[in-house]
Every structure is written in C-alpha cells, then in structure tokens.
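Dear Dr. K.,

Following up on our conversation at the group meeting, I've run the structure prediction for Alpha/beta fold hydrolase from Solirubrobacter deserti. I'm pasting the input sequence below exactly as I used it, so you can double-check it against your construct before we proceed with anything downstream. Let me know if the numbering doesn't match what you have in your notebook.
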Amino acid sequence: MRSPIAGIVAAAFLCFAGTPASQAAVDKGPAGLAFYTPPETLPKGTHGTPIWVRGLTGKAKLTSAKSNRLLLYLGQQTSGHDTAISGTVHVPKGKAPRGGWPIVTWAHGTIGIADACAPSRVGMPAQYDHKLLNTWLKAGYAVVRTDYEGLGTPTTHPYLIGVSEGRAVLDMVRGARKLDRSLGKRVVIAGHSQGGHAALWAGALAGRWTPELDVRGTLALAPASHLGEQAALLGALTAPGPLTGLAAMIVRGVDVDRPALNAASLLSDRARVLFPQVDEVCLSDLTEGDSFGGLAPSELLRPDGNLAPVIGALNENDPETLKIRSGPVQIEQGTTDTTVLPLFTNQLVPKLKAGGANVTYKTYTGVDHAGAVLNSRAAADATKFVRSRLSR
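The predicted structure tokens came back this morning:
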C-alpha cells in the first residue's frame, strides 16, 4: 500500500518540477489590462515581492532577450503604504555565468502620467532606447525596467518625486531576482531624462533600501535637475511650446506627493481647464496646440500665486543634494539639449561631487536630448561604463 507521506512528497516534487529551475513559483497574472489591477489584498512581504507575472508582448519586448516578462511587484509609497508597481524583466540568451546574470536596472524618460502611457504597455516613443538596451543584453547583462509607481497601475504617478522613483527602480531588481534565480546581485543603475533623475535617487537610496544588492555604479543620461529654479523662471517664458506640458506634469507630481500644498490651486484659469488631461493622455498629446502646447509657460500659473512652498518641495527632490556612495557615477549630457539644459547639468555635477560622489562627466557637442541615448559615441561610453562596472 502506498504511504500517504510518499504521495505528499510526490505531489511536492511534481509542483517543483513544473517550474523551471531558474524561475521561482510566482502566480500567473491575468491577460490584458487586468494585469495592472492588483488583487484587493496585496501580498504580505517586503517591498520587491512579486505579485504575479506573465509573458510580455507588444512593442516593449526586447529582441535580444531570451525571455521577456511582465511583472507586477510590491512597492512602497513615500507615505509608507504598500502599492503595486509594474515593470518588465529581460534575460539574455545563453547560460548564466557563475553568480548569475549581472543586471542593468533601466529608468525610462518622461512619457506621461496617464496609465495608458506605461512603457510596459506601449513601449517608449519609437522604442528609441531599444538599441542601447539590446546592446546590453547581447553583452550578457539582464535588463529590468520599472514603469514607476502609479504609471499603469491604479494610483497616480508622482512625477519627478525622487524617493518614489528611486525605490521603484531598486524594487524592480529585487522583484526580478525573486522571480528568476538566474539573476545575480551585481547591478548598475541607469536611466535617461526623468530616468536619469530616478537613477541618481536610486543610487543614493540603494545602500539602505536594498542592501543585499551589489550596486556597482550609476549611469545618468541627461538627468533632470534644478526643478525649483526652473519653476521660478516660468513667468519669463512667453512663447507657447512643449515645456508647458512638462511643467503641468511637475505640478501634478507635487500635488500627488504633497496634497496639503494644493499645488493645482496655483494654475491659471486656462491651465485649470486643461489640467485633467495630465491624467488622461501622454506627453505627445499634452504638447499639442489644443492642450498645454498652446500655452506659454508664463500662462501656466496665476501671477498672484505663492510659488514658494511648491518650489521648496521641488528643491527637496533635486538630485544635487544627494549623497551617492554606491559606486561611481557617470553623467552624460548633449550640448544642444533643449529639454534638460546643459547649464543645469553643469551645475549638478560639482554639487554631487561636493556630496562625496565619484562623478565622471561627459559632454557631446551637437547632441540633443534623445541623442544622449541614440548618439553612437554617447551610447558607446554608456556601454563601456556598464561593462567596466559589471565585469569586476
């Protein structure tokens, strides 16, 4: 007669055998957009705990990956409350080296605040970052990418709020490693634009937030900075353009993170009518003439409003005050960038150095904002930095 214990052991073996050795047992997530809506009760566990996973399809896939997966994981808001965050996990082809695949955690640039804009849903515009990310996969580095808090998932994205971004970038690594045992501890943090801002914050938070990770360095391409100073200059910019849409999203980010400041009350009458669009459409639509692109930056805010509290909140999220101890930092900046102005990055670098960071600063003549990712020399320097940090 078969022993009941033997039956239990056999069942346990079959459950284990049904999961690839490299992959932990994580629930399969629902199809379609239902994937982004977490269960009513979030799982118990530390930040970075996987909630569920499924295969990734669509424009966000990376062609050089052996596997592309969409992951929903546990994050933590700046208020301390748990939340669900989405992101993607891309594993290189071939056999993992001893110690597991080194990891690049990539922080994406601004795409919008609306859930429909989440990069895991739609990819980035023209997939402009794919060539660089595929290069890293071919070099033998896993790539993980967070959507950030509230971008795709039910809460609202706290745009350019440093702690929120940094935690999401780091917890993406923790979640990916719990999902896939072939991923190692060696990590480089990298990002562009908003993602450069996020990467610097993640580099500063890493030692305390995810101490088990061996963070080897931080790569920030055209990182956003000096937001408070730029907000103070809005009144002097009288030509309509895309900057107004970005500024509206920054107001929304402060409104989400610091609701007591009531930042939206500073909007002009025209801007207040348009403001709901920030939560409904992506950046490309916000910059159109029938949206914020039809307003000059000087027309965004009421002339009699007290900007000081909002500027103070923005300054608290400026990366220039950070102390980054988790390996060296490389910052890359195009000289003809009209989105992240070289003037501000030039000021950021010495501030980070004064805070103790080991910063290498590279500039590229004639390179614009997207060129910080697309330019062949900038991309080669970025890849050289990643290789130098992860090969040791």
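Two things stood out to me. The beta strands are 50-55, 65-76, 82-92, 101-107, 142-146, 183-192, 214-221, 329-334, 359-364. Residues 1-18 have pLDDT under 50 and may be disordered.

Best regards,
J.T.
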